[in-house]
Amino acid sequence: MGSEQVNLISRQYNKCSLWVVAAATLATLLAINVYDAQQLVDPLAISAVYALVTNTAYGASWKAVAKSSPNALGKFYLAGSALRMMLAVLVAIAYCLIVGDRDAILNFVLVFSSFYVVMLVFDGVFFARMERKRNKKI
Length: 138
Known about the structure:
The chain is an all-alpha fold. It is built from 4 helices and no strands.
């Protein structure tokens, strides 16, 4: 995989992940307005920021690994997903310790886990397609 192709895939990942986060955020905002669930605004903000930060870091890390050692991408996908999961658990625990209200924690876990699953599916689909295209060219 050439450097230009890695840059192209990285830009495409960043663009698509931004669109997915925006779509999930807007869908959640619509649900908040329809069901008058103002208590979900804070969990939504935290979830959207978490998704943006982790996607940016994941994309930059993927780009670095793909340029330096493309044969190690399989290990990167596993390690990156595990690291992202541990960070998600830490964010959830921190929120639980800071807030302490049972209803607020349940609302946060609902929104945050929804965002996490959406981004997990997006990453899996995006990189599976990318790897399939790359393997066809080889």
